[in-house]
Amino acid sequence: MKWAKSVAKGLLGYRPASLQVGALCLRIRDGKTQVLLITSRDTGRWVIPKGWPMRGRSLSGAAKQEAWEEAGAVGKIDKEPTGAFRYDKILDSGLATPTDVVVFPMRVETLMKSFPEEHQRKRKWFAPKQAAKLVNEEGLQKLLRKL
């Protein structure tokens, strides 16, 4: 019994990180890079399109699908990630779980007017440094400042 309590005490609050994929949606306007940010559905904070890996899709393919569903962005996504960041995902239960997001750059060719989450989110293009100031996640800020 004593052993079980000490093990439980040592693991209390420990959870392995979950994995999500994200699309860093980019375009060039007047020779300058722009980043597409969207608002989250729950708090309205600025984020990149992201979600869970999908059965039958590569990680980059799942990120591309999230870009379409959440932002209406269509384009070419790199198969290699540009980086990753960690944040605390708030689950429906209200609990926070550490989540790693692998980020794939995507060159946006078209922004569709109609897309699955168009009534749940706003979207807007920003200069990378401005985008870095708007997102909350420190790791994502660093990725944006590198652009």
Automatic annotation (TrEMBL):
Protein name: NUDIX hydrolase
Stretches assigned to the Nudix hydrolase domain: 18-147
Gene Ontology molecular function terms on file: hydrolase activity
Alphabetized Pfam families for the sequence: NUDIX (PF00293)
Cofactor(s) the record lists: Mg(2+)
Entry keyword set: Hydrolase, Magnesium, Metal-binding
Species the sequence originates in: Thioclava electrotropha
